[in-house]
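Q: How would the structure tokens look for this protein?
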Amino acid sequence: MCALSRSSGGVSLSPTAYRCKQGSVGGSGGCGGDPRSQTTVDFSLTVNSNARDERGFSLTAQKFNLAVTFFYSGLSNGTVTEYGRGRNASVHCRITSSTSSSRVTLTLGDLRSYRYDKVGTSVGVTTYSAVSGNGATSTLSFDGTTFTQYANNGLQLQYSDQVAGRNPVAHQLTKVADADGVAQTYVYGSGVEAGLLKTLQVPGGNKFSFVYTGGSSISLVNSIQDWCGRFWSFRNKKRS
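A: Here is the predicted structure in token form.
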């Protein structure tokens, strides 16, 4: 479930997919360990087109923790994100809508997609239900600006357009809140970094930040840093 995705404990990783060299920053917890510690995530191309791998970590936060998971899928049809080709992260979720269709698509950080059809509109709010057999269990609403996803566990996830003028429109995750209103919030960049996640604020006010570098067709994540000063740097390279 986006930033609240399960951690990678117990997941078997293929040695030909991306590797994460874990230092003292890996795993769960708050600000334990050396704040100068660094982890490097090596996004190497897999030799198995059917591979599907993930690696992540969690950080303690007020009410509910922040879980960040990085995904690779050889079945992604060449999808390119700021994390690389066929790669994504649990914090990169979006709802895509077209001006010519009443169907919208929810894409999660693990690159799985779920389709929803329009049910109706009342008092300016449009509701959507999942396409039968789609596997989705949540419902959606749209108030003209923001999509809200209602999960079975009581969480509400909000998605808003960050780059005007696109069609289809990509509404990106901006907030995850529980039934008590305790929330994680997502802030995106502007200009050349429009639509790129810059900071993620957890309950209690601590922030997780993202830094990007220019790529051949899209800006790529260069590093991420938590509120303790620890950071993860990324390398995107082609396997020889």
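Residues 2-237 form one domain.

The chain has one domain: 2-237.

Upvote if useful.
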